[in-house]
Write a structure and sequence with these properties.
This protein has 127 residues and is α+β, with helices and mostly antiparallel strands. The protein has one domain (9-120). It is built from four helices and two strands. The protein has helices at 9-15, 30-49, 102-111, 113-120, and strands at residues 64-70, 80-87. A two-stranded antiparallel sheet has the order 1-2. The chain is globular. It starts with 8 loop residues before the first helix and ends in a 7-residue tail after the last helix.
Length: 127
């Protein structure tokens, strides 16, 4: 489900007078930098796509949606949208990445899969 007014990450950042390519992360192992930058960009994208939604985890009746990915192989091949998850009375995801509808959650995932893949797929080096 493609969003009708789909914007690039760079366009969304520009709306806040920011440069998506200027996001930097220091103080963590290099192997995690790309994932942290991707999730930071997703925070801004999810805010943009849910401008009037304020998730409140003290309101159990408020529905909150987050995409779930089919991870495929460890290398990320086949990484794709699998389903949405509805969180009612407790949360297994952070409030920053929930949407007000399953359609928005799915559309965000389908429009920005590289950001989800960058922070979700991790091939840990075993010593």
């Amino acid at each position: 489900m493609k969003m009708k007014d789909h914007k690039t990450v760079e366009e969304i950042f520009a709306l806040e007078n920011l440069d998506a390519n200027a996001v930097t992360v220091t103080g963590i192992p290099e192997r995690h930098v790309e994932a942290v930058i991707a999730i930071a960009k997703l925070f801004v994208v999810v805010d943009h796509e849910n401008p009037d939604f304020q998730p409140d985890f003290t309101k159990y009746e408020q529905r909150k949606y987050s995409p779930v990915a089919d991870m495929g192989s460890p290398s990320g091949v086949g990484f794709s949208y699998y389903d949405f998850v509805l969180w009612n009375t407790y949360s297994l995801v952070g409030a920053r990445l929930v949407s007000e509808s399953r359609e928005k959650a799915k559309a965000i995932f389908e429009n920005y899969p590289d950001l989800y893949k960058a922070f979700m797929v991790y091939q840990r080096e075993i010593k």
